[in-house]
Every structure is written in C-alpha cells, then in structure tokens.
Amino acid sequence: MALLAVLAGCAAVDRQPAEFERGAEADGAMVAVAHPLAAEAGREMLEAGGSAADAAIAAQLVLNLVEPQSSGIGGGGFALHYHGDDGGITAYDGRETAPAEIGPELFLDDDGGPVGYREAVVGGRSVGVPGLLRMLEVLHADHGVLPWEDLFQPAIHLARDGFTVTPRLHGMIAGDPWLADQPDTRAYFFTADGAPLPVGHRLRNPEFAEVLQQVAEGGVDRFYHGAIAESIVSTVRHAEGNPGLLHPDDLAAYRAVRRAPVCRPYRGHTVCGMPPPTSGGVAVLQILGILEHFDSDVLDPRTVDGAHLLAEVSRLAFADRERFLADPDFSPVPVAALLDPDYLAGRAGCVDPERSMGEAWPGLPAWLIGAPDHREVAATSHLSVVDFDGNAVSMTTSIEQAFGSRLMVHGFLLNNQLTDFSFRPEDEEGRPVANRPEPGKRPRSSMAPMLILDEEGAFRAVVGSPGGPRIIGFVAQRVVALLDAGLSINEAVAMPNVVNRNGPTELEEGRSVESIADALRRRGHTVEIVPLTSGLHGIEAVPGSGALRGAADPRREGAALGLPPRGL
Asked: pLDDT, tens digit, for every residue of 339-371?
C-alpha cells in the first residue's frame, strides 16, 4: 500500500425542460442527434436499408449545415463502431493534424510568451488539416451499406432549398465577437445591415451544396486535392492579420486512422472509449475505475455524497490528463499504466469521502513526461445511432471553438483545432511538454464518444457530448447515472450537470443541484454556479425488454427518432 500511495500522487424539484419530448423508444433502430433535421437524415438512411454508419454520416453532413458553429468538413472528429454480429469495436480517428511548416513556437509572441487568445484563434494560424471527411470515408468503407452518394443527398437538398435559423443559431451568431470581422462569415451569417440573421430566416448555402455534390460524385479526394484544397490553403495562408502555414501537401497527405478502443470493466459491464490523441476515453475510464472502489448507493451525482465523490475523482483524472495524454505517435502515452487496477486503487485512496483534496497531482512519476499547458473551448457535436442489425455508432465531431477560426471556404467553416496544443512548448524547467505543437501531430482532445456493453458483451448504451474539457465530466456522470444510479438514458441526459476539472466544482445554474452548494463548500470545495450546456445524445438497450430508448439533451435543440422493426 505504501508503494501504491506514492504512485497515486494524492493531492498536496429539477428543472428539466422538455425532458421526455427529446426522447424516443422503439423496437427497431434509433438515432439521436443535435438537430431535428440531422435526425431526420439519419432516420431516412435507416429506412432505406442503411447501416448505423450510413445514418451517422448523413446526419453529420446535415449538422455541418444547420449547426455550423459546432462541427463540419472543415474540422475533425472521433467515432466508435460496435459490430452487432460479433461484438467487436473499432475506433476511428479523424483528428486534425498540424501543417508540416509549423514549429513548437506556433503560439508564442516575439518575447517568447503565449499569444493572446484572439490572436491565436481567429485567422489562419490555428487551422489544422481537416480530418472529418477522411474518417467518414473509412467508416463507410468498413461498415457502409448504401452508396456513398446517397448519404449526401439530405444535406445537399437542405443547402440548396434552405433551412430555418433556430433560436440557438441566432444566439450563437449574436454572441460571437469576431464572426462579423471576416467578409465571408459576415455575408453569410448577417443581414445586409449587419444584424445577426433573425430566428425564422431561411438560410441557403449553394456553395456548400456544390462542395457536397463534388465529394458525393467524385469521392473524398475531391476535397483533399484540386480546387477545393487550393481554396482552403489560399484562405488560410492569406488570412488578413494572422495567416497560417497550411500547404496543399498537408491536405494530400492526411490519413484517418483506425485504432483499438480503450476499454475496462465497470460494475459488471464493459465501457469503451476513444484512445489518444483524445484524452476523453482514458479520463472517463479512470474516473469509473476509481469510483468502482465506492458503493453504488452513494454515487448519485444529484446528492451531496455523489457530487463530492464525482468531483474528487475527476480532479485525479484531470491531473493525469494534463501530465500524460497527447498524440501517441509523438509522445509515449502510458495508457495501460493509467488504467491499471492497482494504480486506480491507489488513486481511490486519495479520496476522502468527507473532505475535498483541493488541487490534485498526477499520479505517475512526474519525470516521465512534461506537463502540457492547455486551453480548450467548446464547439462540438455528438450523435448516436443504432441500426436494425444491432450495429452502433458513437461519434463526436468538432471545429473547436464556436465558428472555429472564423474562416469560411465555399460555405463551410475551417477549424481552429491547433489551439488544442499547449501554447508553451516547454515547462518551467525547460522540458518539452507532451502536447507541444509539432509538424503532422494531432492535438490533444477531450472528445469522449463512449460505448457500454452488458455482462454478456452485448450492446447496452452509447453516449457522448460536446463541451470542451467538460465533455469528460458530462459523459462520466451519465455512465454513473446509468450503471450506478439506475436511471434511464432520458433521466441521465436531462439530470443537472456537476463538473470538476481539477479546480472549482461547477454546478449547473438554475437546477436543483444548486441546493447542495453550501454542503460541498463545507467539505472544502470551491463551488461555482455556472451555465453548463451539455449536448448529450445517447441510446440504450432497455434492460429486460429488447427495445431501444434514445435521448437528446433538452439544453439544446436535438431529437431522438426511433423506427419499428423492419416490415412493421
């Protein structure tokens, strides 16, 4: 136990709007997506005989159009695919990569300090090589049933005919301080007199429709080579005031990667997530692996005991995340050590059920890898699909901050994912940090699409969320809600959020969980009451019934749509 303690590195009435209106139950197939039009596109593919992969691709392409601030072909993502026939799982890495011309000083100013946030994000400097389309191409090659071209038709038709600006999109446009600074985004998202597009405005995007048509007919190479690629590069390299270093060879060289998922047991189930370069899968599994040392009866996150334990365990996972997780092709990532049962048992010994530890420290010896200095902001989307054959997809996609780099090319926004790198390439002692910028490297992410299998290895649930680094807490809380508190996916998705990122314990503003704030403060927590707008979308196999239940987060505008068995 002494050695474990050293390795563990211990620390020096709910408001649920439209909760069940965002849910669905069916015996055949299910799709849960962040926008009703995207959900309809996924359902259309399933009705046409498509697979979960087909439905996910079609839904994602529509999300690019109707939720442009969050994800799209100018960005990247991660996907998990569960194979209904044999229970296997494949992880798909479509994370952006850094251009070949960048160096570790990418986000340093002339004095060697980190640049300001706007200077980093807005413009070409922050744009990585988009990976989403290559990932969707590989996913379709492995698991698609319908023709590639068919998957693009809903998005193409909506882009040409137009869609209605929702209150959420209007609010995002109105609240962004930099979107009107760029000519293309100003022309697309604002009226002629400079006002944000009003709710109800019919927004058409013929340029994006043309790009989709080319990729539908000619394949993904139409995006990564030729005129579209040249336009992307030109936009990035000529961004006024903040040009980037993207080159045509960077796009031509991009490859999506199939990876083995990270999995571990929890309460008799198996929970699987994405491996690095995202930190989400490992961090969620660490949280679960530590919580397993506490009784399920005390883990309801809506209670003082449950919120306290979830916050304390999250501190430990985030401390390890900051120290060790990065692109495994560039830095050694000790995944097996971080998920080792003995190590997690030692980390559990750091948790006092009655008192907060304050700031946690990473558990493994600090000299293994230098600590990244990281900043992350949320603009992401998640979708979940289960098809008639029991295949499932959990996919999280992003362009990083809301509206990404604010650079628009042919009707789609380019990402600012390079700001997911550490701005400082060295720590205070001059050691290189794991998540420093390097040519061809994939920046660390927090995206955490998850799959849960039951005791027999059969599908139990898929879930994920947007939310920047809070994704980890959002998703871990829902796994606990499902497997410890016994909640349905609808109840779990709609429950108040409790998050800790190794700092203040954040409680969701305007929810009943505010009532436990004083009790947490008495246990030593610094508590902040803040808006916590998750975008959780999940599907579960209803225990004992064989039916599927889907849920879309009531905090956003998504939908869950079910289908009856074939032939009914």
From this structure: 999 999 999 999 999 999 999 988 864 334 333
Name the nearest CA neighbour of 384 among 95, 44, 19, 43: 43
If we measure between CA atoms, which residue out of 29, 71, 76 comes closest to residue 54?
29
**What is the reported pTM?**
0.92
Torsion of CA 210, 214, 215, 219, to 10 degrees: 180
Question: Is pLDDT of 4 > 50?
Answer: no
Residue 279 structure tokens: 């930190």
Res 2 pLDDT > 50: no
**Across residues 527-551, what is the average pLDDT?**
93
- At 47, give phi and psi (nearest 5°): -65, -30
Q: Which of 240-254, 507-521, 553-567 has the lowest mean pLDDT?
A: 553-567
Q: Is 502 left (phi over 0), alpha (psi -120 to 50) or beta?
A: left
Active site residues: 380
The Cα–Cα gap between 144 and 154 comes to 17
Radius of gyration of the chain (CA): 22
Q: Which two tokens stand for residue 254?
A: 């991009």
Between the alpha carbon of residue 216 and those of residues 58, 113, 566, the distances in Å are 11, 45, 28
The pLDDT, as a whole number, for residue 110 is 86
Q: Please write the tens of the pLDDT for every residue from 369-399.
A: 333 333 334 468 899 999 999 999 999 999 9
pLDDT given for residue 364 in this prediction: 64
String of DSSP letters for 412-465: EEPP-GGGGS-SSSB-TTSPBBTT---TTPPPPB----EEEE-TTS-EEEEEE-
Which residues are paired to 269 by β-bridges?
A: 266
Coil, strand or helix at 348: helix
d(CA 290, CA 272): 16
Which stretch of DSSP H or E encloses residue 538? strand 537-541
- Phi, psi (deg, nearest 5) at residue 480: -60, -40
| DSSP line for 146-169 | S-GGGGGHHHHHHHHH-EEPPHHH
pLDDT tens digits, one per residue of 270-295: 999 999 999 999 999 999 999 999 99
* Dist. CA 499–CA 311, nearest whole Å: 6
Query: For the residues of 6-67, what is the DSSP string, one character each?
Result: HHHT-------TTTGGGEEEESSEEEEESSHHHHHHHHHHHHTT--HHHHHHHHHHHHHHHS
Of residues 108 and 147, more confidence is placed in 147
Phi, psi at residue 460, to the nearest 5°?
Answer: -115, -45
Upper half-sphere CA count for residue 335 (Cβ side, 13 Å): 21
The token pair at 274 is: 């994405």
SS3 of 383, please? strand
Q: Give the contacts of 321 (CB within 8 A, at least 6 positions apart).
A: 279, 282, 283, 472
